[in-house]
Amino acid sequence: MRSGDGVKPGDAARPAEDADALRALVERLLQQIVPGAQLSSLNRLSGGASQESWLIEGEAKGGLVEFVLRRAPGGDGEKRSDAIGLQAEAEVIRAAQAHHVPVPEVMTMLTAQDGLGTGFVMRRVHGETVARKIFRDNRFASVRPLLAGQCGAALAKISRVPIDACPQLPSWPARKRLEDCRAVHISQGLHRPVFEYAFRWLYDHLPAEDEEVKLVHGDFRNGNLIIDENGIAAVLDWEIAHFGSPVEDLGWLCVPSWRFGRIDDVAGGFGSVEQLIEGFETAGGSRVDRHALHFWTVLGTLMWGLVCVRTALEFRAGRFAVEPAVIGRRTSEVELDLMMLTGAREGELL
Amino acid sequence: MRTIPGAPEILRVVAHYLRDNLAPQLSMPDKFYTLVAANAIDIASREIEQGGVADAAALSRLQALLGDGDASLEDLDARLAQAIASGDIALDDPALRDHLVQAALDEVAIDQPRYATIARFRPRDDGDD
What's the CATH superfamily of A19-123? Predict the structure, then answer.
């Protein structure tokens, strides 16, 4: 999640790092990317417990230069269990860029000599990531009707990145994804009838496996897209990229929680399913099976529900902060959404 | 507890203080966390006011559904989960769906009373709130 002002540190506080030492290291890094550049400011953008993003602004002969440093200070040791690591993430972004997916250009990978942990530096892409602003601000008024189609087109391009251009990534076709979720649910140990209902529905509606797996972004939704006046300027946050069905990304975008209150704009709050599918198919994506899309939307909703439950359990286990407590209470929104989606006519999204 | 004001009233004024008095004076990220805290207090306040009624209604629906007049809500929830997982209850059983939808609606009314999906379950002639 990203906040409007880009200042939303994770609740797991990290010991303070020496700010001057950090600046010196970043300045040296900046000069490797743009010889002669002077660091003018360094600001923390966002972060989870394990990864940090920093905005680097500098003065160079050609004028202002702006980059984003994405790093894990202590290496990748604390990364999400399903995350691919920063090295692989940078490689996926490069592969996506080579195949015309809008992404921030990766300038350089961090090395041990940089003294900054593992990570990489991207060119800064200007625009907005906050759903509320994208839906309301006048500057997006003319592009808003196009966004659902642009999401489809970007996802088609992602699905067309050749597998052999990507780093090694896990392969999660539909049945594997569902079984992994089932294992997570059982390990969480809570008896939630709606979750059981959704699991049964999903096993009853498993789509036929795709003949070949494709690159899947894994978290393509409002918040991970930089939008400007022309539409999608960059797709961010590739840390759970994997191989699987491209319909997974389409379904994840349709998860009701990612519609941010615009419940009738099924495609991520941006527009209709028809616009999304048309954008996908027109840009060279394979034909979208509506039943598979319904399946992946229900599974995506359930996956978000498992995150809510996990957050509640982490809170009880000692992650003693307000935000995880409130996220835990979002489980009920997921249950209502699951009942809505499983009550919809097959292949049709409500 | 007969001394007034009651707990929900106290929580409401604390949430109001955090949201309308304190948060505007703060900058990020404290402002953000203060608004989240106000939100959390509102959830607790609504649970105190509405939770008992919601649980009692869920209990009586579950007792009818599973034919057991004595078990607790927790036990019945676990048994219903088991019955769904094992296939003993059909997914299209109207009483099952009715219970699950109603339980979810009652909980969302506590956790997020303005959540968009609620409108999808309102009768059409209800109008806007």
Answer: Phosphorylase Kinase; domain 1 (3.30.200.20)
